[in-house]
Specification:
Layout lengths: L7 H21 L5 H14 L4 E11 L2 E14 L3 E6 L6 H14 L3 E6 L9 E5 L1
Parallel strand pairs: 3-4
Antiparallel strand pairs: 1-2, 2-3, 4-5
Length: 131
């Protein structure tokens, strides 16, 4: 399935997310809790002037009805357009990618990043997802 190219604005936001993840990883290295990396990413992106929402509740809709007891929480949403899921795991589970793609679909967003900080080289921990 072919999609329209991403807007220049989305590409710019994505570049800054990747740049921030490099900066955070360079300074902290692997081995910390996910919440530490998330807090540092939020700080760095806000310092750059971006609006960053944390632990964004994404309700689940089924058959035109919002399910009250079951909701997802997206780690970060940048500029109300880009999903960022942070991980600090030894091994990436394919479920993490499926989860991020679901967040994009349910949130009606096109660009997402799945970032695992528990790697020696951060470039090996960043997965860009486009729907």
């Amino acid at each position: 399935m072919k999609h329209e190219p991403l807007s220049d604005e989305l590409e710019r936001i994505g570049k800054e997310i990747v740049d921030s993840s490099y900066r955070v990883h360079k300074e902290l290295g692997p081995g910390l809790l996910e919440s530490v990396y998330e807090e540092c990413m939020i700080y760095d992106l806000r310092r750059k002037g971006f609006k960053v929402d944390q632990q964004v509740v994404l309700p689940i809709e089924f058959d035109g009805r919002i399910l009250e007891r079951n909701k997802f929480r997206i780690d970060m949403v940048v500029e109300e357009q880009v999903v960022v899921e942070n991980k600090a795991v030894t091994e990436m589970n394919p479920l993490f990618e499926a989860q991020t793609l679901t967040y994009l679909r349910l949130g009606k967003m096109r660009l997402g990043y799945l970032i695992n900080y528990n790697v020696p080289l951060i470039k090996n921990g960043i997965k860009r997802l486009v729907v």
